Amino acid sequence: MIQFPKIPQTQALSSNTFSPPPLDGSLTLPELYDWNLQHSPEHPIFIYPRQNGELQTITWARAAKAILTGARLVRQKMGWRQGMTGTTPVVAILSASGE
């Protein structure tokens, strides 16, 4: 298990929408997504301008659900089933975004 150094609690001290997850190495990356979905669903994870100048906000709720959907689609395409053992295929996604 990776042990992260103790960091000062400076982030999210005044946020009403974000609760920092434990950073002690006890959560895997997928578990961090689940944690933020449960504890900080309305917190913005991405904010970017659209072509018309309006700001687009992606919250943890929307991002985590999209990540879970993407993982499910990759698992279906790869024929993955729970409990499978053996060599795990490597999957990479390269994406260009635009409107």
Count of DSSP H/I helices: 2
Spatial order of strands in the largest sheet: 1-2
Q: Give the end-to-end Cα distance, rounded to a whole number of Å.
A: 41 Å
Rounded to an integer in angstroms, the radius of gyration calculated over CA atoms is: 17 Å
Give me the strand/helix succession. Answer: HEEH
- Number of beta strands: 2
What shape does the CA trace take?
A: flat
Description:
This protein is α+β, with helices and mostly antiparallel strands and 99 residues long. It has one domain. The protein has helices spanning 29-39, 60-78; strands at residues 44-49, 55-59. A two-stranded antiparallel sheet has the order 1-2. The chain is flat.
Q: Notable features of this structure?
A:
single chain; 99 residues; alpha+beta; two-stranded antiparallel sheet; 2 strands
In short:
By secondary structure, this protein is an alpha+beta fold. It has two helices and two strands; from the N terminus they run αββα. It has a two-stranded antiparallel sheet with strand order 1-2.
